[in-house]
Amino acid sequence: MYTVQEICKNGEPVPLTTDGQLRVVFIGTGSAFAKRRRQSNILIIQGKHHVLIDCGTQGPLALNDIGLSVLKVRTYLPTHSHADHIGGLEEVALMNRYTPNAGKPQMIVLRDYQDSLWSKSLSGGAEFCEANQGRPLQLADFFEILRPDTTQVEGRKFWSYKHGPLDIVIMRTRHFPDTAVSVDESQWCCGIMVNRRVWISGDTMFDRDYPLRFGTLAEVMFHDCQLFFGGVHASYQELMTLPDDVRAKMFLYHYGDNWDKPDTWVNDSDDFSGDPVKDGFLGWTRQQVAYDFP
Ligand SMILES: [Zn+2]
Fold first, then answer.
1. Are 210 and 192 in contact (CB under 8 A)?
2. CA distance 171 to 210
3. Which of 107, 182, 222, 245 is most buried, by CB atoms within 10 Å?
4. 40 CA to middle of ligand 1, Å?
């Protein structure tokens, strides 16, 4: 069973190690354009190992909030190319390459996604940084690449990477364009399952099969949640259609700045209150606390 621990007491930095328990820290819980909750980037820590899931435009700021920096976080796993998920990676790349003795950070990334992450997003600011470099720099010049293997969960193809005690399963999600009816029609985007205990949806439209499937495996789920219907995220109203026992394991994150003013987004015709605890969820995911799994 998980516990919720306060961290950053008295301004102390969040340790990037644990006494052995799996720890999940949302350094932000807000939507792409949130101003109050820093977007949704997530630290996963166990023992001596850690991974930062996504580092968006506000990622370096969110790390600074908890006493960390892109020089302290050593391993990154980008889920997809929206700026609230990768907009901070240029800072990661350049700060680490050009700070003396910083060393090369690691990136867990699939080969196919590596190519588009670099050629369509990161190369613009990083490819030609050095006057006498002789060739365009590549992602592997900035990051040590860690490559997931293909795996199967209940007969379906996924990818997995073992980072010390962290067993990370990566699954494609249906995020964008909004017309995509399958993951194959979608741009690369993924969610993750950690140690077969914690499922994090990643950015995704409502895809009932995933919470139903992982709801039976996971102890706790964290699900992308948008406060209105439509677009490229799962809406609160769609998540309300999940069975009670699935919602009862689910925290909601990636929420807009008006999450705590339900009168601005809950309609008279809706059969929910806008308070996720009253509506059968575990609640809004909290920023800057540790969800610990002993
Ligand atoms: Zn996105």
1. no
2. 10
3. 222
4. 10
Which stretch of DSSP H or E encloses residue 222?
Answer: strand 220-224
CA of 282 to the centre of ligand 1 (A): 23
Q: Rounded to the nearest whole angstrom, what is the distance from the C-alpha of residue 280 to the centroid of ligand 1?
A: 26
* pLDDT at residue number 152: 87
Q: What is the CATH number of the domain that holds 212?
A: 3.60.15.10
pLDDT at 248 over 90: yes
Residue in the block written with tokens 């990154």: 76
Q: Quote the domain boundaries for residue 208.
A: 3-293
How many domains in the chain? 1
Reported as a single tens digit per residue, the pLDDT across 26-77 is 999 999 999 999 999 999 999 999 999 999 999 999 999 999 999 999 999 9
Beta bridge partners of 32: none
Distance 294 CA to ligand 1 centre (A): 31
Q: How far is the CA of 6 from the centre of ligand 1 (A)?
A: 28
155-187: b or e for each residue (b if 16 or more CB lie within 10 Å)?
eeebbbbebeebbbbbbbbbbbeeebeebeebb
Distance 175 CA to ligand 1 centre (A): 7
**Distance from Cα 203 to the centre of ligand 1, integer Å:** 5
User: Cα dihedral angle (107, 82, 17, 143), rounded to 10 degrees?
Assistant: 20
